[in-house]
Design brief:
The chain has 171 residues and is mainly β. β3 and β4 form a beta hairpin. The N and C termini lie far apart (36 Å). The mean pLDDT is 92.
């Protein structure tokens, strides 16, 4: 088993059993695991980021609240021969990379997925799209999640990480 396989198994266990899981009790009873794209080594990137002037932005959440984040860096990358660009944000919780790709509403959550890029020396970051995950509001609307800023909406597909959650509510 790979580290990613272990990570996904632990996450499924958390979602299915833990009291802090975002799933409702009914969802937990029917839960058989999250759906993922196959591991894609080509989407585990060490990127050179362009530092930005630390600028505060207000990000709307799924429940209508506003949260403050700071733009800190931007990076360019290639996916299947197509260029793309994303902005990395920072908050009290660390670095944050929300994004929407062209698979949204078909294979991925319409409002986007999240990553926490890992800082490396020299304005570089490890951005592993295999770790891309859905915000908790994708499972249960009781959660409030930051919406992906427009500048992080991609025209390219990111076939890595977590797929769209299929609801299985018991009646």
């Amino acid at each position: 088993m790979t580290d990613l396989t272990d990570f996904r198994a632990e996450k499924d266990d958390f979602f299915g059993k833990h009291p802090q899981s975002p799933l409702t009790a009914a969802q937990k009873r029917a839960f058989s695991g999250l759906r993922y794209f196959d591991e894609n080594p080509a989407l585990r990137l060490e990127v050179q980021a362009e530092p930005l002037t630390r600028e505060a932005i207000e990000v709307q959440t799924s429940s209508g609240e506003v949260r403050e984040y700071f733009r800190v860096a931007r990076f360019k990358f290639i996916v299947d021969g197509q260029s793309a660009e994303l902005t990395i944000y920072e908050s009290d919780g660390g670095y944050f990379l929300p994004f929407v790709d062209s698979l949204a509403n078909k294979e991925t959550y319409p409002a986007g997925r999240y990553l926490e890029p890992e800082p490396l020396p020299g304005d570089r970051f490890l951005v592993d799209f295999n770790l891309a995950y859905n915000p908790y509001c994708a499972y249960n609307e009781a959660w409030s999640c930051p919406l992906t800023p427009f500048e992080n909406r991609l025209k390219v597909p990111i076939p890595a990480g977590e797929k769209l959650f299929e609801m299985h509510e018991e009646s």
